[in-house]
UniProtKB/TrEMBL annotation, chain A:
Signal peptide (residue range): none
Name this polypeptide is given: Citrate/tricarballylate utilization protein
InterPro entries from the UniProt entry: Citrate_utilization_prot_B, NarG-like_sf
NCBIfam families: CitB
Keywords carried by this UniProt record: Membrane, Transmembrane, Transmembrane helix
Residues passing through the membrane, by range: 101-119, 139-162, 214-236, 251-269, 281-304, 310-332
Coiled coil: none
UniProtKB/TrEMBL annotation, chain B:
SUPFAM superfamilies linked: FAD/NAD(P)-binding domain, Succinate dehydrogenase/fumarate reductase flavoprotein, catalytic domain
GO MF: oxidoreductase activity
Record bears the keyword Lipoprotein: no
Name of this protein: Tricarballylate dehydrogenase
Cofactor(s) this protein cannot do without: FAD
Ranges where the FAD-dependent oxidoreductase 2 FAD-binding domain occurs: 14-440
Amino acid sequence: MSTDLIAEARRQTEICNACRYCEGFCSVFPALTRQKAFADGDISHLANLCHNCRGCYYSCQYTEPHEFALNFPAALAEVRQDSWERLAWPQPLARRFHDSGVALGVVAAATFALVFALLQMMKPTSGEGFYAYFSHNAMVALFAPAFLLPLAAVAISLRRYWAETGGTRLRWRNVVGGFRAAANMKNLNGGQGQGCNFEDEDRYTDTRRWLHQAVMYGFLLCFASTSSGTILHYLFDMQAPYSFFSLPKLLGVPGGILLTIGTVGLAWFKTKADPKLGAQRVWGGEMGFIVLLGATGFTGLALYAATGTALVPVMLAVHLGFVLAFFLLLPYSKMVHGFYRLSALMIEDQKQGISK
Amino acid sequence: MRQGKPVHFDQLWDIVVVGGGNAALCAAITAAEAGAKVLILESAPKTYRGGNSRHTRNFRCMHQGPLSVLTGSYGEDEYFDDLLRVTKGKTDEPMARMAIRQSEECLPWMEAHGVRFQPSLSGTLSLSRTNAFFLGGGKALVNAYYNTAADLGVAVAYDAEVTHVHIEGDTFTHVDVRIGGQMQQIQGRAIVLASGGFQSDLEWLTRAWGPAAANFLIRGTPYNRGVVLRDMLDQGAESVGDPTQCHAVAIDGRAPKFDGGIVTRLDCVPFSIVVNRDGDRFYDEGEDVWPKRYAIWGRLVAAQPDQVGYAIIDAKSIDLFMPSVFPPIKADTIEDLGAQMGLDGAKLAQTVGAFNSACQPGTFHPTELDGVATDGVTPAKTNWARPINQPPYYGYQLRPGVTFTYLGLKISDRAQVHTERGPLVNVFAAGEIMAGSILGQGYLAGFGMTIGTVFGRIAGAEAAKYVN
């Protein structure tokens, strides 16, 4: 555990606890008023509860040049980032992609695209649509482990996180509470729906929350699209390609559009926001992740648009390359924040229940 | 931050506003909405803009029924009675009642101009009926007003210290101002003075209060040096308020010299004994609940040798008050605690021993006057007097922290500044620089923001009326 980062966040937390002016912004401040002394796990919990809306920074009377030098969003971002890397499994993969997502994301995607090009040389003799280029069995053989293994790695990390932050056994209402807070992104709304202090400094806007919702729901729609395809394939023996008026397409097309719009918006906002209010070391990695996530959605749409043309094999390789890179990097990239956030929201629901 | 076009200050402004806190901003916004071309001269750099308003947290507001975040109702007479109690009658009743009455329409005005309120903070439930808290505190309010002002075309010069206000006869003509080190003259058709008190000019404070003031901490901005106040008084403006007095509370002695703000407060006194440099107690620590007593402790500590006090508690009391910004000094024996704080440990142990043996049995109740008192020790402690005997022991150093000064400019109910020869036709004042007429003594939480908002709006409207 990075003692320096935790110690700095604790110093700032104690100042915040003596002030409390920011109580109405988000869940972090009411959470910190429950205690006077903060163990390392308490700081990890606050850090993962923070959604980096930055309202507290721009409201703070103690930011530099004041000698208290508060920068609470950055202090928590550093601890949060550290917790994802520290609790990651296996450890050798923990940091690299966070630090430099652009380079490694691109390299990974390119590598996988190449692999796919090679696979196409083993082109199946029969099959329709994508399966004309890449047999269904080969696809499953590649993607099932590429999806399940990273999830297993995340599960291991979350178990450690749960123990570190004093989470207890999940109850149904914690799950509901956590999902509810995530579903409406309550902690990015500034407490009153006015939103963040992100891309426009001390002016509140709710645009970032909307963009994040576009990404989140876009991603979930895409995921649902793939899942529905799997179900149609195995349970109903209905195989791809699917028409536009089919579940996979009706979920996937809007999902891809939302994901593309949302990631473009978030990447643009990231260039306008002050990097000093986040974990600066991983700015590049975060940007790389946004690009990777957006590329999975966009190349999916492009692949669909290319239906029936000679571009299909190339687009298929590119799209599947991005998807594969995305899943493999899931435990070691910004994507993992979703799992930690949700856990923190559920744990916060538990802790609130206890203090009530 | 947003970069507008470079502003050429060298032009004739309709209204020049001196100061950049709540009152100045309310005046600037009101005047700009009336069509005036307004320039704000803020002596602080942008990061420290907003004067003492950046440290505030709420607005005391009259209301007939639930209003925004405020519960119940808070009528004019009750509000005025609260003011009378803290000022001990040192107030200008018509002007105070005007501020109180107008506070009610201020709150919706504030919301309409970007201010956001939040429910009473944890630990301040007693204020949920009377005081509307700002979401994010006073700096968030200040930011909102600067944004609103910018949208209205108000120009702002930071690092702009006004050194002299030129008055010809009964009329303001221009100001001398140092902007970023460069002396300039700026002309205006009217001026609003909202540049605060003089508490950050330590020399002035020492002349007024006495040499002890050199050891005071200033809770707010270092930019309230009273330059404009002095300049106006020198030019014959009439004054209000006791020129020797400041409002001081007991705060953590380790606080920064300036700008420590809210977090430096210490709420442990009622559960403690407080000794001076010599290890002697000097006042009843349990006289009343802390919100009613914190203000007198500034003076009490100021009267002790070296202007310092030491609050001593034990393990029983450490969780009974709001957390402190700096951790307390901690020790397993009173002797060691005294030594760590630079006191004579044996003497401190003797004082604690005498106090402990004077403690009488009773049912301790931390949030009300419980009558658990001492018998046979001087001074007596009349509530919450529990023996200090359960290690670890904790100690906090206390020093006087100055919030504001009382000396100010006399104004009319139209916020016009007065001289012996009558009112100045185009000079208006708002905020702390004129608050002494209403707040002659003591302090009522959230009332400074009320005075600033009410008189800021009046000054802005009257100045705009004059120039239109």
